[in-house]
Amino acid sequence: MREGSASRSNPDNDSSDERELALINAIARGDRKAFEKLYTSYHGLLTRFLVRTTSRRDLVEDVVNETMWAVWRGATRFRGDSKPRSWIIAIAYRSLMKALRDRSAQYRNASATGIDPDFDELPEPICETANTEMRDWVKHGLALLPDEQRMTLELAYFLGQSCDEIAAIMDCPVGTVKARMFHARVRLRNTLPVLGGDDSIEPRSEFA
Description:
By secondary structure, the protein is an all-alpha fold.
């Protein structure tokens, strides 16, 4: 996937953006049914996104609820300067970073032990079972990246956000996003062969 591919116009994406914008406008008027629809639409997506950073079910659920509560309270201030999805993901990202800072020792140690078995209940893509070993291999490689690099890759490749959208979500320049992606890729190229048992690979410098 190319970095700019997510920003290309897509009729289905445009239609989804319009539906979500209509829901947010309805929420701004106090429409609880519209909020329920948006909550249902985003609960699974946010959960799968957040669990890639922390394995604590209680923390993930807290962040999802905090995110959607912020959407309920902030709907009147949303002016459509960004896509609804980017706005909501930005709220989730900031909420997660704050939670990790507040309880860093406890939750970082839990994340290092691997994914909570309870999350095996989450729905997986068709034919994903055959790729379990590869997925776990990549998952462990991502877990070794610094938080900001890992989150940048997750936003780009898991949620399909463009560099401009990631910059808005993470509140940093686009150049910083591209630099984080570059360094993360170099780290993964060095790390994944070792995790797979290939010690013959010569480590590459991030600055090569």
